[in-house]
Amino acid sequence: MPDRRKKIDLFFVKNKNGDRVPLSAFVTIKEIAGPDYTTRFNLYRAIELTGSPAPGFTSVQALDALEAVARESLPSDMSFAWSNMSFQEKQASGSGPIVFVFALLFVFLILAAQYESWSLPLSILLGTPFAIFGAFLALLLARQFSASYELNVFAQIALVMLIAMAAKNAILIVEFANLEFNKGLSLYDAAIKAATMRFRPILMTAFSFILGVMPLVVASGAGAEARVVMGVALLGGMTLATILGVFFYPMLFVFIGKVAGYEKKRELQNENV
Q: ∠ CA 29-35-37 to the nearest 5 degrees?
């Protein structure tokens, strides 16, 4: 302390007469305890709190409990706000269904442009519920062992990915069946031939994806919870979509073809020719 007072005597300021006056004549030094730095959030001074839910409770329940305690305990000149993953889960989780609907819409429009048909993409997208149901089933079964398996933002990302993966399996059958139908086969014969010829490619691509997500399922360490939830959803969705898809995709092609009247349209075209 004495050393610091001596050092402040080395600084001078000028008064109105132009005389130099030591700074110690105006300033008193006193040591106090304080933080090394202050945290700011949205331009306000803030304190960051981190935690995890107790066993048997979900993260949503923990966030609701924290919010209730904060509203009851904090003074009127203090407030709270969510950030990072808590913000995504608490505030932005409502955008998940909207993103899912737009993903389906864009896939449908792309397929409609590719096949130049509004009905044929339906035989592909009608297989998407298999993958979604498989993802929910996998999360439900995994939740019996740990409460961390929930429909969070990572599981929602997995659902959007499953739209593309389920559509990919269906395209392998529907595209080949459509080519065979255009060659003159009936809807049923084209679907059976496509299912027979594309069975092995579907299994190869499906199992390559399923094995590829296994590292996510067994992940450990920092951030493993997010990877595990995504991996379990992808594993369950793709597995069920593959098992059911090889049987239902040909049926869906025949069903849509019958409803849209593909065979009648082909007969009219042949008569006109």
A: 110
